[in-house]
Amino acid sequence: MKIIESNTISEPPVVPLRNEGLLGQLAAIGVLLALILGFFLYAGGWLTPHALTPASIVNTFERVAGMHSGFRRNHAKGVCVTGYFESNGQGQAISKSLVFLPERVPIVGRFAFAGGQPYAADSAQTVRSLAILFKLPDGEEWRTAMINIPVFLVNTPQAFNEFLVVSSPEPGTGKVNATAMNAFLSRHPETAAALKMIGSHPFSSGFGDSPYFALNAFRFINAGGESVPVRWWVAPEETFSRANSPVTGKNYLFDALIKQVHAKPLRWHLFLTVGKPEDPTAQAASPWPPDRRQIDAGTLTIDSIESEDTSPTRDINFDPLVLPDGIAPSDDPLLSARSAVYSQSFIRREGERKSPSAVSPAEVGK
Amino acid sequence: MLTPNNPAQFAPLARIVHWVMAALLLAMLFIGVSMVSSLGSYHMLLSIHRRLGILILVLAAIRLATRMFTRLPAFPPTMSQPERFVAKASELLMYTLFFALPLVGWGMLSAGHYPIVMFGAVHLPPILPARPGLYAKLRETHTILAYLLFLTFLAHLGAVLFHTLILRDRLLNRMVPWSVRAIEGEGRH
């Protein structure tokens, strides 16, 4: 039998199995396979269950804000908007991105409150956000999520996760644990300094008259291949007024925004703050010197507003690293971490049953 | 099925693509499993993952075409009929996964409303409509298929090592990148 097979396929005779050494050889193969499996498990984080991961940060959000199926784990309460960005061409000096050609590109966006509670009452003291997606003519996208504080609170994902815990009210008392917060601030002077700076910049009266800051530094690359560090922010055309409008309902700040957009388009100027080579790009909690060059790159116009319940923007992840050619991440560790955590939040919420948004289609329509 | 004309090895292109894909797929499995638990390296790993995924899809097409239009080497006599069946079934499974994993990844990004960025301004079009529930299902499928591929890879490696090191039937010669002739067997024609 063996000979016939050998003739047909020109194979050498098979070396018969020898029992001595067989177990050792089998064990060697088994050990190799086990090592590969072990390395795979290690790479996937299964052997280090207490390491900080995108999933564990999202778990922290769920712990401090409660579990709200179908909603973003942060900036959960919001409304969706559409409009356009009209570039004036000034941005081309530092970026080759098509978004800075002197043309108009459509945008979709979302105003929201920071925090993971989708039905929390509006408060002028809660951090507000504006997320924008620019749709470039070649199909590229630029997504940015900005908030109304001039510097970020921390420099690293580890500090962020810790700050999230110490700055949240404790379940028993309903208050922030002052001892834990002070201990955190003494270990993180950059956060103490950031809080001081944020405290000296009062919030505006609403969504429409507020500036929004992207906070993290990016690299802008122009057609000549030059790369400069950039932080961007948007300045409202509406006159900034201090937070003092009367509370008229749970959604009073969203209702005011809806009324404004229905009355006339709201506009913001996109400012590119160009850093110098010595400016740190990996310290989101520290501002750059105030004399840095500011490029007014164009105008964002928001002319339509919609409830999350009916808007496709509800299902967009405003991942800060969805960037067009000409804008690149800096060495800021928060950027990759934000991208990872947003993605984890997106994976979870898109697999869950959706509940109605606090700001209903009827409310936006009135 | 077995004719005297069966070559001793797979076609040269098939062998080269096999080893390139083996290296890329193993790298992809480790990159994939690392990036989902990573914060600081997430973006860098994901950028590589997307590009390699599409490269693997292209290589899989080349490999399938090569397999369809070239003659295959015979199984060694050390393989019983049931073992041959298992080998063929696992080969079919691996080919399916070579195509399914990149396509599910591409489809998942499409359904999740993500641009599928390759490099610079170059990006791929969506292959599915943006739909939230679909994104979540495909994202889960992508993970399950990747684990399945990893386990199939371990079984494949284990079986080849068993044949090559213990049975010493030179099964591996069919796929080594260099040219091998069945010299010792030829004397017995």
Q: What order do the helices and strands come in, and which of them pair?
A:
The complex is a heterodimer of chains A (366) and B (189).
Chain A: H1 2-9, H2 22-43, H3 54-65, E1 77-87, E2 104-113, E3 128-135, E4 141-147, H4 157-166, H5 178-187, H6 189-199, E5 212-213, E6 218-221, E7 227-236, H7 252-263, E8 266-274, E9 293-306, E10 327-329, H8 333-350, H9 361-365
Antiparallel strand pairs in A: 1-2, 1-9, 2-3, 3-4, 5-7, 6-7, 6-10, 7-8, 8-9
Helix pairs in contact in A: 3-8
Chain B: H1 12-35, H2 42-69, H3 81-111, E1 116-119, E2 122-124, H4 132-167, H5 183-186
Antiparallel strand pairs in B: 1-2
Helix pairs in contact in B: 1-2, 2-3, 3-4
Q: How would you characterize this protein structure?
A:
The complex is a heterodimer of chains A (366) and B (189). In chain A, helix 3 packs across helix 8. Chain A starts with a helix and ends with a helix. Helix content of chain A is 30%, strand content 21%. With 366 residues, chain A is an alpha+beta fold. In chain A, strands 1, 2, 3, 4, 5, 6, 7, 8, 9 and 10 form a ten-stranded antiparallel sheet that branches. Chain A has helices at residues 2-9, 22-43, 54-65, 157-166, 178-187, 189-199, 252-263, 333-350, 361-365; strands at 77-87, 104-113, 128-135, 141-147, 212-213, 218-221, 227-236, 266-274, 293-306, 327-329. Chain A is globular and about 90 Å long. Chain A folds into two domains: 19-51; 54-365, Catalase core domain (Catalase HpII,  Chain A, domain 1, Beta Barrel). Chain A has nine helices and ten strands. Chain B contains five helices and two strands; from the N terminus they run H-H-H-E-E-H-H. Residues 183-189 of chain B have low confidence and may be disordered. The two termini of chain B are 19 Å apart. By secondary structure, chain B is mostly helical. Chain B has one domain. In chain B, a hairpin with a 2-residue loop joins strand 1 (116-119) and strand 2 (122-124). Chain B is 65% helix and 4% strand. Chain B has a two-stranded antiparallel sheet with strand order 1-2. Classes of the chains: A alpha+beta (366), B mainly alpha (189).
